[in-house]
Write a structure and sequence with these properties.
Elements: H1 2-21, H2 25-38, H3 43-55, H4 59-69, H5 76-85, H6 89-97, H7 104-116, H8 120-133, H9 139-156, H10 173-185, H11 189-210, H12 215-235, H13 239-251, H14 257-271, H15 276-286, H16 297-313, H17 317-330, H18 335-348, H19 352-365, H20 370-384, H21 387-395, H22 399-402, H23 405-417, H24 421-438, H25 442-459, H26 462-475, H27 480-490, H28 495-502, H29 508-512, H30 517-524, H31 526-536, H32 616-621, H33 624-627
């Protein structure tokens, strides 16, 4: 019996080998079932059946087969691969950890699972071990995958390896593309754009010349490279070019839903608050279901944040509230941004105290973002009209932030709005002193001196303004604008100093040197000269009254009285009688007046009907309109029957047969 069983198994395995070589996976499954019917402990049969189901893309059946076999250690690779393809990535990682041997294929699957789990540091280490210990025809693919891992490490900020290497143009287009993405993540936008263009060119050349691909296949392959180019251009501020690329890719109708989601999200960010209807439509496509396994967490969080911002800017209060709560729950890294959106929403609804309390809680939780959150708090306070509290918050900022030109300008404006000019002057003085002590850039110090001088000149404190302008003049002695302002300030309280400084002003000749008078006059326009000449009583140059020779004396203009316009006498009809009241309908057409009578139509109404030569009496016999009602129906209906209920039709009745009747009123 045992020998017969062994012979049958041997025959089955021979058939199994033949079907495997011919890639006839359905037959492989049938033969494997026959083997398992003979002996359920045949591990090879279980493995062959599982692999055949995987090749037929029946991953659920393959996973069920592995579970039924109970050979989890021996079939760990197959089980993990099925779970990976079924998007059960966490289960796949636990399964692959229990594999009996760490073969190269097991390590590569482990690296892929780690990549999907976004554990990029561990994934990078696994790929480094594989590349170091393995050498075969797939080395280029492994290097490309490891570059993709490095891109995500750079995006997440976990890479600290110094200068980002530039991939040589002789490499494959996939490797060049990943290298360009790495440069883009590192902020080297110009270099990244050049590499992306090189990757697109190489991709088109390779697919067309070596693979013989069609134009549609080439467009499908380069779509992701083109979208990355648009993303790069968008960061460079060249949004029109980016928009053209996104639209050109959309015209090719790509099948990748993840790529479509990214394009639609980027288009929403370009639209901002304009073109709301288009943005809503595109955001709906970007947030479609089924993308959670195709996009990274960072990409999904960015799309969710943009969705929340779009809802806020389009006044969708309930949607904004729901999306901000989802951000807090699903993406903890965006907690601060979500709370800021919530505070802005509360401020818009008039709940300013709640908004301020929410921002104060953010300051305690995120002390590293204190300055940004305090500036948001100031906006809420100004919305409440509490200028004093806003000044207090601005004054409490750290010295480095409080003495920035923009913050100083805002604080001075608030102090002046409250009528406290002394406090505003003190703020400017302290800011100048801080920049002098800390030796900041000359441009910031000069800007502050100029603002201080302008403020003190407006408030009438010419001496303080002069001291600021004097320091600014020392900083840049060749600036004639500063010198002129300084002379103006001295002229208010020290004329001798103003006269002394005025000698340093450049001569008139140096100022007007190289000045084109004709260009200047044409810039002013002919109307300006016409008004100026009229004011002096001169004739315009194009007027025939202008003097032909320059030596003639001009006569003094004589004041002429304005000629009075004569009123035209009203023209009255010949038969006008002032004693009679005019007809109120005299301006209406005759056919619209009350007494209008339509002319009688003298045409014959009764037209002879019937054949030629038939009399009118004979014709009446054959005229159905004349005989209607002479014949009575056999049975008269007692009540009208309701019509059958069918599809309703809108019958539009024409009024007046499409013509306007004569004589009708308005």
């Amino acid at each position: 019996m045992a020998e017969v069983k062994a012979a049958r198994l041997s025959g089955y395995y021979g058939e199994l080998k033949k079907f495997i070589e011919n890639s006839n996976y359905n037959k492989v499954i049938k033969v494997a079932n026959k083997i398992l019917a003979e002996d359920v402990k045949e591990v090879k049969a279980w493995q062959c059946k599982t692999v055949a189901l995987i090749n037929l893309d029946q991953f659920s059946d393959a996973l069920a087969t592995v579970i039924k076999s109970k050979f989890f250690s021996e079939l760990a690779f197959e089980k993990a691969y099925c779970e990976y393809r079924l998007n059960k990535v966490a289960d796949a990682f636990q399964t692959i950890q229990g594999a009996a041997q760490s073969t190269p294929k097991v390590l590569e699957l482990q690296a892929q699972i780690l990549y999907r789990l976004e554990r990029y540091d561990e994934c990078h280490e696994v790929y480094r071990d594989i590349i170091r210990t393995t050498s075969d025809d797939f080395d280029m693919e492994r290097e490309t995958n490891m570059t993709a891992v490095l891109v995500n490490r750079t995006v997440e900020g976990g890479e600290d390896e110094g200068e980002v290497p530039v991939v040589d143009d002789s490499a494959s287009y996939e490797l060049i593309y990943n290298g360009a993405c790495r440069l883009l993540a590192a902020g080297k936008l110009e270099q990244a754009l050049e590499k992306l263009q090189s990757a697109e060119e190489q991709c088109r050349t390779y697919l067309t010349q070596e693979e013989g691909a069609t134009e549609d296949e080439v467009n499908e392959e380069v779509a992701i490279i083109r979208v990355q180019q648009g993303h790069c251009l968008q960061h460079l501020g060249r949004e029109r070019e980016a928009l053209a690329i996104y639209n050109s890719v959309l015209k090719t109708k790509p099948d990748d839903p993840a790529l479509l989601a990214i394009i639609n999200n980027n288009l929403v960010s370009i639209n901002r608050t304009a073109n709301v209807f288009d943005s809503r439509k595109r955001m709906k496509a970007a947030t479609a279901s089924g993308l959670e396994h195709k996009l990274t967490t960072r990409q999904r969080s960015t799309i969710a944040l943009n969705h929340c911002l779009l809802a806020y800017h389009t006044n969708q209060e309930e949607v904004c509230r729901t999306e901000s709560q989802a951000l807090l729950k699903e993406y903890p890294l965006l907690t601060l941004k979500a709370r800021v959106i919530q505070a802005a929403q509360l401020g818009r609804e008039g709940k300013l105290n709640e908004a301020q309390a929410l921002l104060n809680g953010c300051i305690k939780e995120y002390p590293q973002h204190t300055t940004e959150i305090q500036l948001m708090t100031i906006q809420i306070l100004l919305a409440k009209g509490d200028k004093q509290a806003a000044c207090t918050v601005l004054s409490s900022l750290p010295d480095k932030d409080r003495n920035r030109p923009g913050v100083v300008s805002a604080l001075v404006a608030l102090q002046v709005a409250q009528g406290d000019r002394d406090a505003a002057s003190k703020v400017l003085r302290e800011a100048v002193e801080w920049h002098q002590n800390n030796k900041t850039s000359a441009s910031q110090l000069g800007e502050l001196w100029r603002h201080a001088a302008d403020f003190h000149l407006r408030t009438g404190d010419a001496a303080t303004a002069a001291s600021s302008l004097l320091e600014l003049h020392k900083l840049n002695p060749h600036d004639t604008t500063t010198l002129a302002q300084l002379i103006t300030a001295y002229a208010r309280y020290d004329l001798k100093a103003a006269q002394k400084l005025s000698r340093e002003l450049p001569g008139v000749g140096s100022v007007v040197e190289g000045l084109d008078v004709e260009t200047l006059e044409s810039a002013l326009g002919h109307r300006y000269f016409k008004k100026m000449q009229q004011g002096r009583g001169e004739a315009s140059p194009s007027s025939p009254k202008a003097p032909l020779t320059p030596g003639l004396e001009q006569k003094k203009p004589v004041d002429k009285k304005k000629a009075k316009k004569k009123k035209r006498k009203p023209r009255l009809p010949k038969d006008y009688n002032p004693a009679m009241t005019p007809d109120p309908e005299r301006w209406l057409p005759r056919w619209q007046r009350k007494g209008y009578r339509k002319k009688k139509d003298r045409r014959v109404k009764e037209v002879m009907k019937g054949t030629q030569g038939v009399s009118s009496e004979a014709a009446d016999k054959f005229d159905i309109t004349k005989t209607a009602g002479t014949h009575k129906p056999a049975q008269a209906a007692m009540s009208p029957q309701p019509e059958s209920q069918g599809p309703r039709r809108n019958l539009i009745k024409k009024k007046g047969g499409g013509k306007k009747k004569k004589g009708s009123g308005w």
